[in-house]
Design goal:
The protein is of the alpha/beta class. The protein folds into two domains: 6-74, Winged helix-like DNA-binding domain superfamily/Winged helix DNA-binding domain (Arc Repressor Mutant, subunit A, Orthogonal Bundle); 78-273, Rossmann fold. Helix content is 35%, strand content 26%. Helix 2 (27-34) crosses helix 3 (38-55). The protein is globular. Residues 5-74 form the Bacterial purine repressor N-terminal domain. Belongs to the purine/pyrimidine phosphoribosyltransferase family. PurR subfamily. Keywords: DNA-binding, Transcription, Transcription regulation.
């Protein structure tokens, strides 16, 4: 790469870091890339670190030693995240979104990359301190959420299927009981998709009784994998604690009331924002 003026180098370095979250980059790599002394690179990184932290963009972690370098950790401040979620809640309260069974129509919102990026950053912030190897979700609406989260954590995504695809080779399949409908359903995961003893973050779009997520947890047991965390976009607050199949999860929004006759709903920020 040609030698840049310092102002241009700062811009390019910032973009380079933003595109590589949770990736350790050595000072030598930066010095070679920009044809600059390590002392100059260190000064530049100090400026970027200060701006990132002041503006709530994220954190720049520095690791000393021969194998050290810098790592960009995307984060979002709680107050900024709360403002975004409140707007999402307002949109979810639109009467035309109410579906039979007390569900909400969210497909259009999940299909908006800007919203999903914000949601993914929130999940990445919530689980940043945990050791995670892979993000897992079940097809289909959880996929954009999982990829948005994976982008900010720089992790691969594993998709659980409702049925086995011949193009994915041999698979592990289990039966599980849907928490809301009480029906027995099937989910499967290709054997090659997940290494044994992986640490897995489960991401899902909607949590009612939790049958689908519990199914994924049971499926992970077949791979001797560990659940590193569970994140859900919206949870149903109308389901009692005794009905929910598990209780350790992070939710970004909570559907607390649905009137199917009037189609009036109440959606509030989830337990991620609880003090």
């Amino acid at each position: 790469m040609r030698k840049l003026k310092r102002s241009a180098r700062l811009v390019e370095m910032t973009q380079y870091l933003l595109a590589r979250p949770h990736t350790l980059i050595s000072l030598t790599a930066f010095a070679d890339r920009y044809q600059s002394a390590k002392s100059s690179i260190s000064e530049d990184l100090a400026i970027i670190k200060e701006v990132f932290e002041e503006e709530g963009i994220g954190q720049l972690h520095t690791l000393a030693g021969a194998a050290g370098g810098v790592k960009y950790i995307p984060t979002v401040r709680k107050e900024a995240a709360l403002a975004v979620i409140r707007e999402i809640c307002r949109q979810l309260e639109q009467p035309e979104r109410v579906l039979a069974g007390g569900y909400l129509y969210m497909t259009d919102m999940i299909g908006q990359p800007a919203i999903m990026s914000e949601v993914g950053r929130m999940f990445a912030t919530a689980f940043a301190g945990r050791e995670i190897d892979v993000i897992m979700t079940v097809e289909t609406k959880g996929i954009p959420l999982a990829y948005a989260t994976a982008m900010h954590l720089n992790l691969p995504v594993v998709i659980v299927r409702r049925d086995n695809k011949v193009t994915e080779g041999s698979a592990v399949s289990i039966n599980y009981v849907s928490g809301s409908t009480k029906r027995i359903q099937t989910m499967s995961l290709a054997r090659r998709a997940l290494r044994e003893q992986s640490r897995v973050l489960i991401i899902d779009d909607f949590l009612k009784a939790g049958g689908t997520v519990q199914g994924m947890i049971d499926l992970l047991a077949e791979f001797d994998a560990t659940v590193a965390g569970v994140g859900v976009f919206v949870e149903s607050g109308e389901v009692g604690a005794e009905e929910r199949l598990f209780h350790d999860y992070v939710s970004l929004a909570r559907l607390t009331h649905v009137d199917l006759k009037t189609k009036q709903t109440t959606v509030v920020p989830g337990n991620y924002f609880d003090d």
